[in-house]
Amino acid sequence: MDFETITVESNNAIGMITLNRPASMNAVCAAMLRELAAAIGDFDAEESIRVIVLKGDAGFFAAGTDMSEFAAADAAGKSELYAKAADAFARCSKPIVAGVAGYVFGGGLELVLMSDVVIAADNARFGFPEITLGVLPQMGGAALLAGRVGRAKAMDILLTGRHVGAQEALACGLVSRVVDGADLLNEVGETAERIADMPAVGVKLAKQAVSQACGGREISGGAAAALSLMSVDAREGLAALRENRAPKYVHK
Questions:
Q1: How far is CA 72 from CA 6, 66, 117, 143, 235, in A?
Q2: Percent helix, percent strand, percent coil in the chain, to nearest 5
């Protein structure tokens, strides 16, 4: 498969995926999700690959979700596609190590929440701005966030749409560790190599055990996310985005 929104390469036992939409600061779109699902499926099926690395490029991870796609008439179809892409992450039996810097918003944060080890640069900032448009994260991000950081912190992040800095993200368990930005790629590479050197069956079982203990990786928020697109205010928010104006919400 030819990729346009990501780059894919393998280095011994490590499969590397780099988000590659620099013009939009790697905003997550339907095409990117299709390619991510394909790449993850291929790496998961390749016996020689034992770890998958997911990273951004050009100093940022992903600045959000391309919500302009949901302003179109086929928003429900886009929502279904996002759910299917999330399922590809959930089915992956191999550990996914994410290296993130700069903006990690919207769909970018959802990709982080679907990863197993998250190493953040000290300049990373996280958030779900979707609430400002009256919609929810489209890959089950609300449920995934609650599972990662707990109810109180998830409500704080989701309902305000505020940005969370790297140290706050570390303190609440959103990320695994924080490093100097200059060391990010080395830290990610060394971590992936360390995991790849471990017995593959043990790694797979460890991932399963942790996932089960944390309630699995089911995308229970998918139905709510799809419903959020049907509200009056969501339609207004998306229309305002498309028309480059301030939205006028009626809270319905």
A1: 24, 12, 35, 26, 10
A2: 50, 15, 30
Q: Active site includes 110?
A: yes
**pTM beyond 0.85:** yes
Asked if 121 and 90 touch (Cβ cutoff 8 Å), the reply is no
Residue 249 burial by Cβ neighbours in a 10 Å radius (0-12, 13-18, 19+):
middle
Spot the catalytic one: 4, 9, 80, 130.
130
Considering 4, 9, 47, 110, which one is annotated as catalytic? Answer: 110
pLDDT tens readout for residues 3-54: 999 999 999 999 999 999 999 999 999 899 999 999 999 999 999 999 999 9
Structural domains in the chain plus CATH codes: 6-184+194-200 (3.90.226.10)
Look at residue 98 and give its three-state secondary structure: strand
Give yes or no: 4 in active site: no
Residues 6+ apart with CB under 8 A from 211: 217
Termini Cα distance of the chain: 43
